[in-house]
Specification:
Length: 249
């Protein structure tokens, strides 16, 4: 049985004092959950968040990183920098990074490899645009993004990769994919992994759904056969709302 993994993606929100207050309120609400709970916070909150989650079941993730270990890359943060301060997860290839910051399938792949070299667990985002969906090429887009993201990884690494299927038209729009739709696309992602790495590996991979997840729709989505939790943006900014999402399953 795969575990449910529920990650909050705060994006460019929350100052350090807000992060600390959030965790103070949120931690007791989720202390008894069997699900994996992750908060992916801005770089400037990482250190404060890591201190605040000590002695809790909450894990901390970053939202991006560079693939190089160090060097002349002004403004970038390396995997080693994240690992050294105690970060465990990192979101890679979020659609906002693909859309606004030139993230490509190739840089996504480099970053995933760098994450594993530094013992960080990647949460890799894939998802189609509205235009692609309307053209009927969702499967093609999703399977190609998955294949290119995982290119060259070992079976063991793939087993430890979290994939977040986030249809871009559902992010921050209040529109959610239906649970059947999301489940079917996630099944296709699993099938693609099976083609390359075999059934055993494919059955281990955690695949989340993301895109306007809220406490009112979380249970229906997360109880589908192939949806192993969620990557939650807007609704992860409120402690009680996010706790209800975590505890929906
Ligand atoms: P949303 O964002 O929940 O606000 O739609 C999800 C995401 O971008 O990861």
């Amino acid at each position: 049985m795969r575990k449910k993994v529920i990650a909050g993606n705060w994006k460019m929100n929350m100052l350090p004092n807000e992060a600390i207050s959030f965790i103070e309120e949120f931690a007791p609400l989720v202390k008894d959950t069997q699900n994996e709970v992750i908060l992916c916070v801005p770089y400037t909150d990482l250190f404060y968040a890591l201190l605040s989650v000590q002695n809790t079941n909450i894990k901390i993730g970053a939202q991006n990183m560079h693939w190089e270990e160090k060097g002349a890359y002004t403004g970038e943060v390396s995997p080693k920098m994240l690992k050294t301060i105690g970060v465990e997860y990192v979101i890679i290839g979020h659609s906002e990074r693909r859309q606004y910051f030139n993230e490509t399938d190739e840089t996504v792949n480099k970053k995933i490899k760098a994450a594993f070299e530094n013992e960080l667990k990647p949460i890799v985002c894939v998802g189609e645009t509205l235009e692609e969906r309307e053209k009927g090429i969702t499967s093609q887009i999703i399977t190609s993004q998955t294949r290119l993201a995982l290119d060259g990884l070992t079976a063991e690494q793939v087993k430890n990769t979290i994939i977040a299927y986030e249809p871009i038209w559902a992010i921050g729009t209040g529109k959610t994919a239906t649970s059947d739709d999301a489940n079917n696309t996630i099944k296709e992602i699993r099938k693609e992994i099976e083609k390359i790495y075999g059934k055993d590996v494919a059955e281990c991979v955690i695949i989340q759904y993301g895109g306007s997840v809220k406490s009112v729709n979380a249970k229906e989505l997360f109880t589908m056969s192939d949806i192993d939790g969620g990557l939650v943006g807007g609704a992860s900014l409120k402690p009680e709302e996010f706790a209800n999402i975590v505890k929906s399953v």
